[in-house]
Amino acid sequence: MVASVASAATVHGRVDNVPEDIVEYHQQRNIVVANDANYPSRISLEVFEIGKPEPSLVPVFGDYSFTIEDLKPGNYSMLINSYDFALNQARLRIDVDEDDSVEVYPDDYVLGTNITAAVAGTSEDPVVLSVISVKNFYETPKGSLMGLIMNSPLGPVFKNKWLSGIFIASLSMLLAPKLLEIFAPEVAKSIKEAQEEVNRERQQEREAKLARKAQQAKK
C-alpha cells in the first residue's frame, strides 16, 4: 500500500470490531462499568514525538473514531490502550515528511525495511485498530477484595507464589509488633523488655572489649 498525502499532517483512525452487545454482555455478568458504559471515553490514546517526553492526549469519539491533528514533520509513537478491550495493536509509529505526507505502521517494523503495511492515515486510508477480545477484570457491585488486589500494582506479586511468600513474610514482620501491642500488650511488653536486655548486654560487651583494648594499648 503506497501512502498518500494526509491534509495538514492530520491522521485519521478508528477502532472497529467492537462487540455490539457489549453493554448486554456486562449487564448479564452483573459488571459495573464506570462513566455510564461510555466505552470510547475509556480508551486512552497518547502521541509522543520521539525524543520528547510530553505526550499529546487524543480523544476517541463516540463512534470510536479519532483524529490526530497538527503533526509537524518528524517521527511519532502512538500508544493506545482500552480498559475494556484487548486491541490488535497497542503501539504504532507515525512518520511525517517535510511535504506533510504521512505513513503509519506497527512500531515493531525495522526502519529502512519495505513497509507494506503502512497506511496514510487519511479519511480514505485510515488507521484501523481492531478489538480482539473483551477484558474481564471488573469489580462486581458486591465488591471483590481479591479482584481489586489482583488488578492493582501488587497483582504481579500475588500471581507469583514465590514473590507472594516474600511479600507476606515481610509484611508480617512489619505488622507483628503493632498487632501485639493492640491484642496482647503484656506479651509485647515482655518482648520489648527482653530486646532491651539483649541490647544492654551487647552494649556492655562492646564497652568491655573497648576497655580491654585500651588497657592493652597502655601496656
Automatic annotation (TrEMBL):
Q: Which InterPro entries match?
A: Beta_sandwich_EMC7 (IPR019008)
The name on file for this protein is ER membrane protein complex subunit 7 beta-sandwich domain-containing protein
Q: Which residues form the ER membrane protein complex subunit 7 beta-sandwich domain?
A: 49-154
Question: What species does this protein belong to?
Answer: Diutina rugosa (Yeast)
Q: Basic and acidic residues compositional bias: what residue ranges?
A: 195-210
Q: Pfam families under this entry?
A: EMC7_beta-sandw (PF09430)
Q: Where is this region: Disordered?
A: 195-219
Q: Which domain of life is it from?
A: Eukaryota
